[in-house]
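Hey, sorry to bother you again with one of my protein questions. I've been staring at a protein lately and its backbone has me curious. I owe you a coffee for this, so here goes:
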Amino acid sequence: MTQDAIEIEGLKKTYSGGKEALKGINLNVPRGSVFGLLGPNGAGKSTLINILAGLVTKSAGKVTIWGWDQDVNPRQSRASIGVMPQELNLDPFFTPRGALEVQAGLYGVPKARRRSDEILEMIGLTDKAEAYARTLSGGMRRRLLLGKALVHRPHVLVLDEPTAGVDIELRQMLWTNVRKLNRDEGMTIILTTHYLEEAEEMCDEIAIINHGEVVARDSTRNLLGQLDAKTMVIQPDTEVGPLPEVEGIGVSTREDGTLAVSYRARQTSAEDVLSMLRDNGVRIRDVRTEQADLEDVFLSLTRSA
């Protein structure tokens, strides 16, 4: 049995009119991981997700979900994945319990094995179980979308911009549930998000897509390690005059009067920076460092691509 939840080989998608959304993507998602799929608008993320969900027909390539080839065993591969879409596509005349029951029926889940009440409790909608979906708030509807994606106990859960436009309470509830599903049930999670700090905190591995191609794919730690730029923020004890230019070290003054000293950790040590400041008469009251975050990596990779 393969160790990957999803294997994608040479995946291409060209829409009518000649727009090439995916240009031969190769990607694997390890089982039991929380995997981030990042990219700017129009990069091809939604097309890729819709192909995985069976909603869009690929132009070329091979997709395997939980060991099932999408072309050879479409029913089994589709049953192995659950998708929480970005759009709030709910029937307004169904209650949350009714929506879960219908969704379970569509996947062929026998009544004895359905767990609608368990899911309603998990997503915090037990008290709204019999309310029409049209009366639910936007946050509640998004919770229901998560519940619908879980009715058939998928091995892989895809979350497409799950926290876009939601409040902090809902975001925390969602991530608590995602961590529990990943930890307790071994569910593989694929996350797309525009909140890069969210991906940095949640994801074990990340792939960055730009213009229909994978421009980076690595562990979150390794991606952050690609940029060794650091900034030392100095609170001087007295006013500082102009400092001489030193190769590998850049100095700027921020609005609050602190000095932002940028340098490359592989080329210059923190001691070299402090020595340069002391040699130029800078008395240091306080010091802290800032490191590159995922946003810096993302911007660097997408711009270079």
Notes: The chain has a mean pLDDT of 88. The radius of gyration is 24 Å. Residues 66 and 110 are 22 Å apart (CA to CA). The domain at 4-224 is CATH 3.40.50.300 (Rossmann fold).
